[in-house]
Amino acid sequence: MCTVSFVPVGDKTIITSNRDEKIVRPAALLPQKIETSNGLLYYPVDAKAGGTWFIANDRGDVGVLLNGAYEKHVPKESYRQSRGSILPALFTADNPLEGLSDFNFEGIENCTLVLFVEGELNECIWDGTNATLTKLDETKRYIWSSVTLYNKEMIAARRQWFKEFITENPDPSQEEMIHFHTNTGKGNDSFGLKMNRDNAMLTVSITSIAVSDEASHLQYIDCLHDKNTIHTIENKVTSKQYE
Question: In the CATH scheme, what is the code of domain 3-234?
Answer without folding.
Answer: 3.60.60.10
